[in-house]
Amino acid sequence: MLPYEVQSYDFAFTHATIGMALISPGGTILKVNSALYELLGYDPNEVYSSFLPHFIEEIIAELVPISELLQCKEINRHQFEQFYNHPSGTLLSLDISISVILDVNKDPLHYFVQFENKTMLRQMETELHYAESNLHKKEDSFQQLIERLPLSVLITNHGVIKYVNPAGLQLVFAKSLDEVLGMSTNQIVDTSSHSALSERRKKFYNKNADGSVRYLIHCLNGQQKYVEGFSLHVTYQGQPAVVGIFKDISEQKVEEERVMQSEKLSTAGQLAAGIAHEIRNPLTAINGFMKLLRSSDGKNDKYFSIIESELKRIEFIVNELLVLSKPQTTHTSSPLHLIPLLDQVITLMNVQAALKNIEILPKYPEKQIILINGVTNQLKQVFINLFKNAMESMTHGGNIHIHIQTSENEVRISVQDEGCGMTEEEVKTLGSPFYTTKDTGTGLGFIITHNIVHNHGGAISVNSIPQQGTTFTVSLPIISVADEADM
Q1: What is the pLDDT at residue 401?
Q2: What is d(CA 119, CA 101) in angstroms, rounded to the nearest whole number?
Q3: For the chain, how many helices (H) and strands (E)?
Q4: Is this structure's pTM higher than 0.70?
Q5: Do the Cβ atoms of 56 and 39 come closer than 8 Å?
Q6: For residue 299, with 0-12 CB atoms within 10 Å meaning exposed, 13-18 middle and 19 or more buried, which class applies?
Q7: pLDDT tier, 402 (very low <50, low <70, confident <90, very high otherwise)
Q8: pLDDT of res. 361
Q9: What mean pLDDT, rounded, does the chain reach?
Q10: By CB atoms within 10 Å of each CB, which of 135, 162, 461, 474 scores lowest?
């Protein structure tokens, strides 16, 4: 059986579109995803006997020096390019990224290796370099080339868009070239990257810029995407210009964030288990002696009460740590009805809500049947945590609105409060152990909630406005949706 740290990557491995492998410090392959089999052109049953000696073995040989390099430079990732002879006879250019995952003692726990096929990008880069050298003679051919490219191409002059190929128009949801001609790239690239974009533009025109770049962009329909690409100097319509070649990496970015979140949860779980077990034994002894002292002398009841209160506070933290440290990937899911589950949680929380002058208002069709796969107690814990968080943020009463939206593949449950809200910086810090905006919180509740949702194949998002309220939205895979009359 694989260790828990490896099991925590199961979701990312299963759904990733790029090749992934987990390798032990001793060079043993712990896990390989199906995308890597497909990339290297092998059947899963042939992997260990065939491509290991010829390719993965070369990667494993690099692990020790790379591990030392990463630790010396205090970075967590090393990237390099390597060529691979595909069984079909094609020479692939692979971008290989190796991360060293460390344990609590800063020793290598295992290596996380990603393989991305960059062959098309390299081919396009080679073709574009060739086209650039002959552009003054073959501008018409260059135009035809970029129009047929499956990658997004835009040509700019000092940041002003002069041309975008059909794939680029599709990327930003533009209906025609006229919609983007004359726009500044500052209007498309997110403001968080404007300073980097400006600096790169200056260096590029001074012939100093090179390498690839990543941007968060805003499409014309309001959607956001992550893109990665590179730039070249060209002559376009008789004027110096820059051609940028980009591809959409939004799904890859999501997968990278899922992997990083898995790493955080794994580390937090190890830390939690260690702290909880170290604290619990002396805590039990102190509690016992406290009761003995109180029974023998009642003159210092005030001090005993304070000490007892603080001990309960420590016990509360320990219990949350132990919940966090337990692996959640071993649960057995079964089909369950979402709305009755929510109704049970609302009934449970209504008494506590009434004491705080808060009303929980479900806004969904009660006779609709929504089936999902899950563990009832764990999902109840998710919504109990969200309701408690909402109530704790509403010191002067108010309403908590519950909304449900369904699509073909998922159901979204929103818990919207009228509390104090959070700033953008506070929202970004959610999920960090022991960070909280509440006087009596530990910051572990959201990590536990996120962990449960993540292990159910779902996601959780937060939208908050200071002094107006916060909305937590849980998305879960759906089995089916039907009206009660149709069942």
Answers
A1: 95
A2: 28
A3: 17, 18
A4: no
A5: no
A6: exposed
A7: very high
A8: 93
A9: 77
A10: 461
Distance CA 430, CA 423 (A): 11
Q: Which amino acid is at 232?
A: L
Residues in contact with 88: Cβ distance below 8 Å, sequence separation at least 6, in sequence order? 41
Indicate the DSSP class of residue 184: B
CB 226 within 8 A of CB 250: yes
Q: Give the Å distances, CA to CA, from 420 to 91, 182, 343.
A: 58, 43, 26
398 band by pLDDT with thresholds 50, 70 and 90: very high
Average pLDDT estimate for 412-417: 94
pLDDT band, very low/low/confident/very high, at 404 (cuts 50, 70, 90):
very high
Contacting residues for 202 by C-beta, under 8 A, at least 6 apart:
none
Q: Is the pLDDT of residue 322 over 70?
A: no
Residue 347 neighbours by CB under 8 Å, 6+ apart: none
Answer yes or no: are the C-beta atoms of 145 and 138 closer than 8 Å.
no
Q: How far apart are the first and last CA of the chain?
A: 41
Provide the sign of the torsion angle of the four alpha carbons 296, 300, 301, 307, taken in this order: negative
- Tell me which DSSP letter residue 9 carries: T
Band (pLDDT 50/70/90 cuts) for residue 66 is low
Q: How far apart are CA 14 and CA 23, in angstroms?
A: 17
As a dihedral over the C-alpha atoms of residue 53, residue 58, residue 59, residue 65, rounded to 10 degrees, the angle is: 140
Residue 189 is given by DSSP the state B
* Radius of gyration in angstroms for the set of CA atoms belonging to the chain, rounded to a whole number: 28
Q: How far is CA 413 from CA 369, 402, 416, 475, 477, in A?
A: 14, 7, 10, 7, 12
Reported residue count of the chain is 487
Give the pair of three-digit tokens for residue 198. 């400006």
How do residues 76-99 score in pLDDT, each as one tens digit?
A: 677 888 888 888 888 988 888 888
Cβ–Cβ under 8 Å, residues 19 and 35: yes
Q: Where are the beta strands (DSSP E) in 34-172?
A: 78-85, 91-102, 108-117, 152-157, 160-164
**Strand locations in 103-210 (E):** 108-117, 152-157, 160-164
Instruction: Tell me the H-state helices in 356-464.
Output: 376-392, 424-429, 444-455
The model's pLDDT over 232-268, given as tens digits with 9 standing for 90+, comes to 887 777 788 888 888 888 887 777 666 666 656 665 5
